[in-house]
Amino acid sequence: MRSKLFSVPGLTLALTGGRGIHPLDLGQRRFLHPGPLRWLRALGWAVALVFLVALSALPTGEALGKWWPQTSGVAQLAATIIAAGVGLGVYALAVWLAEGRKPSELALRPLVPELGVGLVIGALMFAAVMGIMAVFGLYDIQALGLAPAWISAGKAIQSGVIEELMIRAVLLRLIWRAFGPWVAFAVSAALFGFGHIANPNATVFAAVCIALEAGIMLGAFYALTGRLWLSIGVHAAWNFTQGYLFGAAVSGGDFGPSIARSTARAGVPEWLTGGAFGPEASLPGLVVCTGVGVAVMWLAWRAGHFAKQPG
Questions:
Q1: Is the separation of the CB atoms in 208 and 286 below 8 Å?
Q2: What residues have CB less than 8 Å from 64, skipping those under 6 apart?
Q3: 3-state secondary structure 51-115
Q4: pLDDT per residue over 220-244, tens digit each?
Q5: What pTM was estimated for this model as a whole?
Q6: How far apart are CA 199 and CA 181, in angstroms?
Q7: Cβ of 12: how many Cβ atoms within 10 Å?
Q8: Per residue in 51-76, pLDDT tens?
Q9: Largest CA distance in the chain
Q10: DSSP secondary structure letter of residue 310
């Protein structure tokens, strides 16, 4: 059934969309056909798909970035968009060939409304986190004025598209295929969180925060809609708002020029602010994102999406 909680056009489609992740969407033909050791075949295929996406999209972006003028922000952004498109295309082709199905998780008809809603949700979520930080005196936020957005936009698109492809469309989906939804959520969220442990200024607490915040929340959006667009929009907008609009550290890194600069106040415990890693590793970030994730998981559960067993 569909939730009746939202009735705004576009928002309704994005937040109640379709059938969620159906057994057919998990893959059940060709390489993933029913039979002995399908769980092992699913895990092997997950590893292969991660490498296919990474080894097609990332080198494409690097090659185009070196070939096109380094001083042109527009050219660098275009290179990132093309690389993201290559990643999506390689994933779609691989699924069609190896699984014998059209990748419904990349259905084009809902792309615009779901991506748009995701961008709004991601921006509002991070703004809420920084609002809490400001009200309680945890961060200093200084306006800097206009700045070019090309670098931040490119990094946001790359992380939003490539990470959602690898973590949600590949790992979450195929572990779900192998062991069911709850194992898939636990494992994919843990891998996503601890995949950030090598980032600058990362801590175990930061990795746990990302696993709980983004790993569960972004997976919940995917489970709700059965598509990637909402997750991509939320992921990209969160990073762009964090790095460009507020000028805070993004997973320990610098997102380039920004229109503001946000720094944690000295003497405040890092678990409250995220410290040098950024607000993702903060208590306000954990509360806001986990709250949204739990709400979206409830919507997906209420719609019956977790009751569907792998076919």
A1: no
A2: 78, 79, 82, 83
A3: HHHHHHHHHHHHHHHHHCCCCCHHHHHHHHHHHHHHHHHHHHHHHHHHHCCCCHHHCCCCHHHHH
A4: 999 999 999 999 999 999 999 999 9
A5: 0.92
A6: 28
A7: 17
A8: 999 999 989 888 887 777 666 678 88
A9: 61
A10: P
